[in-house]
Here is the input.
Amino acid sequence: MQSWRSYLKWLKPGLGVKRWLLLLVLGIGLLSLGIAIALRALYPLPQFFYFLTLQFLPRGLRASLVLLVGIWAIIYGFRGLYRAILEPFLVGAAQSVPEVIYDYRHRGRGPKIVVMGGGNGQAASLRGLKAFSSNLTAIVTVADDGGSSGRLRRDIGILPPGDFRNCIAALADDESLVTRLFRYRFAGGQDLRGHSFGNLFITAMAGVTGSFESALRESSEVLAVQGQVLPSTLKTVTLCADIACKDSTPVRVCGESEIPKVNGRILRVTLEPANPSAYPGAIQAILAAELIVIGPGSLYTSLLPNLLVPEIVEALKAAPAPKVYVCNAATQRGETDHYTAEAHVNALEQHLGKGVIDIVLVNSQIPRGISFGDGIEWVKPDIVGHGSQRVVYADLLDETQAGRHDSHKLARELRAMLK
Here is the structure.
């Protein structure tokens, strides 16, 4: 009985299959009619056709038998075709074939959403949003100069692939072996230690295809990503910060990975060169979006490097879609020490001006008895004095990772902003 319920799911609205089944049945009917007309033109037929067409039976009984056999042949033929062609691609899948097709069609009709940032926060947003839309665009910072990405950037001159690799993996099937391979990081070897396979793959693909953007596109196809991952700019940029140290003497530090190491308060961050041209695809995605999500992520080293590209900010101001800033749940040592949610918003407005952000989404759940130590603390959620913005408070915490956003909780709140 369970198998018959599974087959009935093919009739579910929105699957995009019934129209082709009807066309198939119509084609079979027309073919049968054409054969019947041709046979009539050939009368008289050989004697064995008398028995082949059951003419020795009453007309009503003969028609019923032919219809029943025809229906049986169509059903079991479709069942055999289903098993022969589709089932091998879904061995071990949690969903049946019609459910997989329905989800694919449903997500394909989902809203156009742009997610801006970098690091684990952006990946968390994408991982949750991909459940109800495949029209996602991740716009990623190119200022990263630490770890594996920094080494590849310095040694080969490629844009840092690390955050792009995170986004591609987040938009792919989480259970895929290729996705896990993309996330694999080498632990041994003098030259390979610390490199992730995904970073090396994108770097190699850039060499094969001749450009970084082609490498991103081809890498996304390898993992069957539903959506696109784009750089904010193709220019090689360096993030610099003016930092007030303990004696209040401002110092200028350049390098995304170096900024958090300075013991001081960040006054302002800039890019060098100061006015890099934006990647055209990123501008198009922003202007066409139905929702634009900024964050969560490192305020100064992941979010602002995207927003410091002048054409990106101009596109955000011109875009009709609501712009949502997702505030971090915890501070970051050396970057947002002692920052409240309001301090995060003030820092954004200091760099972008007022009126760019429409909605601020803030985590309202601060667990008791859980502290981070090492200079990290929970971000206090209260925001006052921002009447032009709508502030939304919600429980966004991941119960398995302290201070991180839960992908599904975050996606649920963002989806509600589209209604």
Q: What stands out?
A: Residues 59-85 form the longest helix (27 residues). The mean pLDDT is 85. The radius of gyration is 29 Å. The first strand starts at residue 113 and ends at 117.
